[in-house]
Design a protein that fits this description.
Strand content: 25-35%
Number of strands: 12
Structural class: alpha+beta
Number of helices: 10
Shape: elongated
Distance between the termini: 81 Å
Amino acid sequence: MYKPQSKNLMVLYILNILKEYSDEEHRLSQEEIRDLLEKEYDMKVDRKSIKRNLENLRAEGYEINSTALVRGSGKKQNEINTDYYIESDFDDSELRFLIDGLIFSKYVPSTQCEDLVNKLKGLTSKYFNPRIEFIQSLKDDRKMNKEIFYTIGVLDEAIREKKKVNFNYCAYDIDKKLKPKKDKETGKNKEHIVNPYYIIAAQGRYYLLCKYDKYEDSANLRIDRIQNIAILDEPINQKAVKPDLPKHMLEHLYMMSGESGLVSFDFKKEILNDVIDWFGTDIILQEKKNGIVNAHVTVNYESMKFWAMQYGENVTVLSPKSLVDKIKKSIKAISKNYK
């Protein structure tokens, strides 16, 4: 049914039509926009009204492109615009990149992942094909912490306001549910009070880089395992040294906490690409004989232990001795398990 009062919303309807039905490969003439206004919004308008509203949208900063055509000749020559489409904030490859990041993330529950993917699809025209038919195969049965987005928001506010936060830190129990860790003395849910510094995305998960007042080393805490978070009125500890983020990320291969230091190790040259992928180009390298390369790098000791064991036969840690001894002990324990 025709509704004259709806004409006040014509500019909004035209904008919606351009967003849904147009892109660089699918352009709309004024006649097509007019037909869609009638079909989608039951609104009958003339071509001049459409042109005027398109120009109003352009004046407001919307990137609406069109093709100019010259018709007639001499004094009767005039220019008309056609083939309208709106420039999207993201091109298709950028949207696919964002969608892939969501699909393969380890911290977003599958239902929330699908909701977010649909929202991203809404940022462009209906012709966008995200190629996500395989999303169903990536679902799992883990009981994910659905507070994660709220937690990130609270942490972001606390970091900006330089305030401490209080929360429960959880771990999976045998029933596969996340449960707060207990205080050994009281048996109650343990409260963690930390100085928050950075939110980090690494290995497909979000981490909070923070410090406890009683420890000098930084802690990397899984944000998807944080529950019941609250911002305290207490400001962060001004005496605590804020971590150097780029340096911290290079040293903490697996986002483990603990001491870092200079490590020397030998590796087979055939895994040189892997070594640089993990440690970056600041690593000090020296080629030895028989296809062996020596490396020196400052790294978190616990992370280095796991990394060296991951690459097994291709790596030999030389120093510090304490790290070498830990690796030897782990290797013996593994060997014992398989006897």
